[in-house]
Amino acid sequence: MVFRWRPDTVRLGETNIHGQRFASLDDLPDAIFHEADPEGQPRAWYRHFFDQGAILWTAIERGRALGSVWVLNAARVGAWYVPLEADAQVIYGVVTPAWARGRGVAAQLSLAAARGAGGVPVYLDCMAWNRPAQRAFAKAGFVPVAIAGSRWREARAGPDA
C-alpha cells in the first residue's frame, strides 16, 4: 500500500520517543551499531542507506537505536508505485527491533520525518499484509493513496527486498 502524509490527520500524542535526524554515518553514535549492541544493525547496513543519499531518522534510548526510518528525495527514487512530485520525499527502510515494538516507534519516527520534510509531499509504502504498521502510519497522519504489489521491489532489488 502507498501512503501520503496529511498533517491534518495526525492522531499521535506526545511521547518520550523523539526522532533525531542524521545525514551521515559519521554523525551516528558508535553505541547503536551491532558491534556495540548485538541487537543493533551493522555499520555496513547504515552505510548502504547513506551511500544512496538517504537521511536517517532514529530515536536513541540508553545508547540503543529504537528503530530507523530512511528518507530519500523523489529524484533519487526513480520509478515508483505512483508518480511523485519532483520535490517529494519517500520514507522507506522502516525498521523497529523486536524488543522495541509496541511502543509507537515507527509511527513517531515517520511523523518526525514527515514534519522534518519542510512541507513537501511525503510518501511511504507498506506491505498490504502488515496491518500493525498500517495502523501506526495512519496514526502518524499517513493516508492510503494506492494499492501496489511487491513486484516493484523484487524487480529492482531482488526477491529478498
Largest sheet: 7 strands, mixed
Structural class: alpha+beta
CATH architectural name: 3-Layer(aba) Sandwich
Query: What spatial form do the alpha-carbon principal axes imply?
Result: globular
Any idea what the radius of gyration is? 15 Å
CATH superfamily: Gcn5-related N-acetyltransferase (GNAT)
The topology string of helices and strands comes to EEHEEHEHEHEH
Strand content: 15-25%
Helicity, in percent?
10-25%
- What is the average per-residue confidence, as pLDDT, rounded to a whole number? 90
Low-confidence stretches: none
| Total number of helices | 5
CATH class: Alpha Beta
Across the major sheet, the strand order is 2-3-4-5-6-1-7
CATH topology: Aminopeptidase
| DSSP strand tally | 7
> What is the number of domains?
1
Distance between the termini: 16 Å
Could you name the key traits of this structure?
Aminopeptidase; 25% helix; 7-stranded mixed β-sheet; alpha+beta; 161 residues; 5 helices
